[in-house]
Amino acid sequence: MKHKSLVVLALVTLLASLLAGCVQPAPIAPTQGSAAQSGTAAGGDEAAPDVITPGGTFTRNLGQDASILNPILSSETSSSAVEAMLFPGLIGQDPITGAFVPDGSMSESWEVSEDGLTWTFHLRDGIQWSDGEPVDAADFKFTYDAMASDLVETPRKNMVERIKSIEVVDPLTLKVTLSEVKCDALGDLGMSWLPSHLYKADFSDIMTSPLNEEPAVSAGPFVFQSWTRDDNIILTRNEDYWEGAPHMDGMIYRVVPDPAAALAQLQNGELDVNGLEPAQLGAVKDDPNIKVYNFKDDGYDYIGLNLANPANPQPGKDDAGNMIPQDPHPILGDLMVRKAIAHALDYQSIIDNVYLGQGYQMAANVLPAVTWAYDDSLKPYDYDLELSNKLLEEAGWVDSNGDGVREKDGKPLQLTLVTNAGNKLREDLGVVVQDQLKQVGMEIDLQVIDFGTLVEQLLGQTYDMVIIGWTGVGADPNDDVFWRSDFDTPGSGFNFVSYQDPKIDELLTQGFLVPGCKPEDRAPYYKEIQKIIHDTVPYVFISGGVGNTGYSTRWGNIDPGPWSFYWNVQDWYDKNLQP
Asked: Which of 183, 459, 496, 544 could pair with 512 in a Cys bridge, judged by C-beta atoms 3.0 to 4.6 Å apart?
């Protein structure tokens, strides 16, 4: 039962991370990336000098303090941003396309067996931790065995569930055998490695190790120097970094939670980089000291529609794996009502006025940037009040007493819409949605509540409608945790709209069990999934995510990609120090 409780903990922790959203530039992580995303930076950068004078300290904002500096124990972006500069990993990621590649990782190359079960990795020779010990296959095995151990309470348990065995053939050759074919397996194998030589072999010290707050060694571009809680974390140059010692002396992470204060610090030079909210773009538009990198991120905002009765939440399947018939939502259980909601919203106006143009309409659950899996034949729902009204009337909802609210069988068309307090964009969106649905005779009770309470309602499936978003959905289109009936588990599951469709279950399974895992063989499954999701409207997709990162022109060689701002950080240099 302990494993089950840890899985629940992992789901709750990951849910909070996925839903919260973050405007900070994100490090490369296994959950990030998709193909052919685009980004643009304002202005070009002059060529770097032939000889660079080292020095300078780069300062960035975490927004909130890190929680822990052990990559298998942390679960939020602040900790990950620091860990990305210290700990190596097996898999790299192309900063532009999001594809998994050896670049920047401990792997020189890899291959997969014909049956798709065994992945063999050939590691780089001569890589060392900053104390001189080798970084090799033993570190990977130790890290993944630790995540599987009952002694380690990690939110990463799901990353080891399908690993059958890990074999260290030799220090530079690693074989990972899966229990079943899993086409998104590379993402699960991209976890940052722990320095195995600094821990007990039985994992008994991992939860309480002082290394969790003061990492003693690094195999990244920087080494840990200090951590002042709720104020700053300081890293210094790793002179022995395998891709070349950074030009800068170090990197400072400040904790500046207030967006307005962070913007002011970016403008006055106290910060060298910071995520920008749409409303802040005008303030830096003509600032010669700041560039803005604009990119489509791997997330989207939506209105989740609870398809089941919030007074009677039930799991999607019983212990034997059989479907449990759901008690439908008294209003949203009707597809015509859901389609009426989708047609009642003026998406372009919302994107222009709420998102300040920093968004784009989506048709279904796969991001357009995942080009091989995206179905561009699907069209987003259009704004059509006449059709919305017609659908509601055909569903039996009419305004018989002329009070502006439709009724059916003596009950008004009343729904509660929840979102999290403190997210101004979502709060503003809630007001617009409330007003636009009123135009078709729906009475919407908008409730802006604290994030913890919101998560409780979502996981408990005790809500009607929610404005929320997914972020960091990843390079692979396999998003089964949102849709498969297995994950319709009140109290912990990500399928909190209680979506239940045997065909979707089948397609999602087939999509990541394709022998050979070729994109062209997998694509038909995901395109069919998109059509079903589009046609059944469990989500009303509002906008694909767009990110904006402001950064100082003081630094040269910054070349951001949508999946990593920092991929070539060792090449950055302080222009003010150059002759």
From this structure: 183
R_g (Cα) of the chain, nearest Å: 25
Q: What is the pTM of this model?
A: 0.79
| Per-residue model confidence (pLDDT) at position 19 | 60
Provide the 10 A C-beta neighbour count for residue 422: 11
Phi/psi at 538 (5° precision): -75, -30
Residue 213, both tokens: 């707050």
pLDDT for 4: 34
Q: What is the pLDDT of residue 75?
A: 80
Number of domains in the chain: 2
**Structural domain harbouring 149:** 87-209
Which of 209, 240, 273 is the endpoint of a domain?
A: 209
Residue 367 lies in a domain: yes
CATH, residue 483: 3.10.105.10
CA-to-CA dists, residue 72 to 47, 79, 138, angstroms: 39, 11, 16
Listed residue (268, 263, 274, 275) closest to 289, CA to CA: 268
378 in any annotated domain: yes
For residue 18, the one-letter residue type is: L
Backbone angles phi, psi at 24, to 5 degrees: -75, 145
Domain limit, last residue, from 151, 185, 209: 209
DSSP 527: H
- Look at residue 312 in the predicted model and tell me its pLDDT: 96
